Amino acid sequence: MTGPNARSAWLGATLLVAATLVAYASVVGAGFVWDDDDYVTANAMLRSLDGLRRIWVEPGAVAQYYPFTFSTLWAEFHLWGLDPRGYHLTNVLLHAANAVLVYLILRRLAVPGALVGAALFALHPVHVESVAWITERKNVLSGACYLGALLAYLPRIDGDRAAWRYPAALALFVAALLAKTVTCTWPVVVILLAWWRRGRWPAAVVREMLPAIAVGAAAGSLTMWMESHHVGARGADWNLTPLERLLVAGRVPWFYLRMLALPAPLTFVYPRWHIDPAAAWQWGFPALTLAALGG
Q: Dmax over Cα atoms in the chain, in whole Å?
């Protein structure tokens, strides 16, 4: 990218970084909260080189098996110990980088108002928890890898066959999984974007995404096992019937859309829904979700 396009991109990126730093300036002076003890202040694995080894090879050594995330915290512990300012600043800088990546991706996709879209991403209140909470390093770090993988692969959809793009994208995707496995959606997003860009089913892209789908499924399965057997996500609160799970799955997208449109109240934990398969009105949510997907 050269000439006016390059200058425009640089100006947009600079404005995004500046806006993000201004919006989150007060975060740097904040402290540790809630389960920052499991991740940083009381995490013995951050203290030694053997702890770093165990982070990678011993699932259960830390709260969740996100070794890339915990490795960054390990490195920072050896830079500034238990001074929260360094951890907070890293989160803010990662979020600023993510906003720039969103901007570049939207430009690549020729989406109108790319800078406005990226600014909305940078400044939307729903991101505050991910940026301002040290434990949520996993969100901003995995997001950077996820978006970086997408930016690396997108030109390939449009015919750029540079040899480095595919392995670079896969490597960044794996890094995203090692930061937080919710990023397992990446290959599906790539397939959908390719389908949209080409106007036909992208068989070649699907074949290239098969290894990523397999790795993502394996990582997701490990996380589910860890959440159930190590984190403690089991018992009466998690014993939902298949019908109840369907009702929850159908309702979730509309909850998130509502929070995007009206992000209040924002809190760590939201009240538990009363799920009742006998209540006819609750089936409206999965019906609307299926209709939206069909459309």
A: 62
